[in-house]
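INPUT
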Amino acid sequence: MWEQIRSNRRRGAFVLAGMGVLLVLIGMAVAGLFTQDPGGLVVGGAGALLLWLFLWMVTVSKGDDIMLHMAGAREIEHAHHPVLFNLVEEMTIASALPKRPRVFVVDDPSPNAFAVGRDPQKASVAVTTGLLRILDRDELQGVVAHELGHIKNRDVALLTTAGVMMGAIVMLAEVGLRAMWYTGGGRRSRSSNDQGGAQAAIMIGALVLLILAPILAQLMYFALSRRREYLADASGAMFTRYPEGLASALEKLGGGRAAPLSDTSRVTAPMYIVAPLRKARGGGASLFSTHPPLEERVRILRSMGGMADFGAYDRAFRNTKGRRVVGLHTLEETTAVPARDAGESGAGDADEGGLFGTGGMLGAVEPAPSAAGARGAQPPPLPPESLRARAASDAFLQASGYAMRTCEDCGATVKVPPSLQERVTSCPRCNGRLRS
Amino acid sequence: MGIAIGIGALVLIALYFIGIYNSLVRARNEARNGWSQIDVQLKRRHDLIPNLVETVKGYAAHEKDTLEAVISARTAAVAAKTPGEAGKAEGLLGAALGNLFALSERYPDLKANQNFLSLQEELASTENRIGFARQAYNDAATRYNNKREVFPANLISGGFEKAELFEIEIAAEREVPKVEF
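OUTPUT
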């Protein structure tokens, strides 16, 4: 695990260095529009770095709490959602994080989840109520493991830094192009003829740079983000020893074409499990999306051939994409680990059962392993603030055409989306009759 | 001049070995920490059981044998001293709990009881945590063992004992009967 972080950090540092060079070049190009003095160019490059540093400090000082607040996340305790809370505890142990991240829930019908925290000691994970509604226990475990993978791999720090750098490059290029548009002609007319030729060459060079650099920076940033997404998937499979859980969750997330989450910025987008922005959602392998296409992530997870380690993920990735994703250095350190079977509860290696041979004990009680969790188990009575939150989210659902139906047998309330109202006539929990 | 170079080289070598020593200590602590996680989760399981037994009693008091088996298995597991003893006792406890949950299938009221359901979730999660803790411990122990055996760390790793991997050794314990419905 630590080896994995090390080799990834090296690659991340490489991308950051590349973007840093672009940043300095573009700073020099902008300065070159106003002066030809070499000293001036150096000042331009340094100025670009300072701009990045300033933006970075603003982003960092805003902190995780602001981001969580912007997303409308509220922190929960064990009693509010025991299953989610337990899953975060389980995955903290599996990933050997030093401390359990704080757990947040976002009242949003769109299924999604994200992690924040540059420091694994002070990280947080948040999931939407929409996600909790549609996933079973194994699937939710996969999602939580994916998010903890982001924390463990320190993606938050890397992607924030790279994202801010991309922002600075785009910003400077914009400034440079505008400056060229307004001042370029005037300055040229003032210069004498022999200087004009040299200046024109510089201007053309600067123009090319101003147009290409932001595109290049974005390509680098998005490639980094997509790669990290694959690696978080690999970590999720590794932590849970159950790639199918995450695969099935991603499939459900792809099916849910709910509205994109509000209040997500470009910089925070890579932390989500599926792309939260409207533009990035359309599917297809775009070079300008933060996330790889869901179908591809699912296909890779499903072709790991009954194994759950990084090596198996890398092989599956190569079969799909024709190149590697996990660092070679990492692969040397990983040992092959089989995935567990669907029927097995708990973790541990599939061929050994759980600790002390109790594997499958609780899974055998219920027909499906997941039934012990999210679907079957009823949480203890909810505290008033949760009930208020539920009432509020119900009101939103009703406003968007959901029908509230009560089961005559078990008393459960079933919230049926408009498209399914003709098809859902019996209670999905006990098969009883539904009354609206 | 030659002496200075010699001393410099010695200092570098000493620093190198200090680095190796420290990384061995770190790896050993990681493994120990992984082990303590298993203990924490086993204790959590012990703490949950009295509550579970009380809840089940309310609905199925006459299932004395099963309930008593769980209680005595828990007592034995709490009292276990060595890892070997603990392994055996926890195995029996797991089997007894399995019987208890299987029994609950016959009592619909019990199965619908909020308290029972949340205890079931807590125990299922504890079971998972024990498994994941074992998984993490074995990973850390393997890393530590590799570290202390490779050259040149093996020159100074005499004081570092090899960490035992956590495996299930007794065949009977692997074969807890699965209850199918």
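end of record. Helices of chain B lie at 2-60, 64-79, 83-104, 108-112, 114-149, 171-174.
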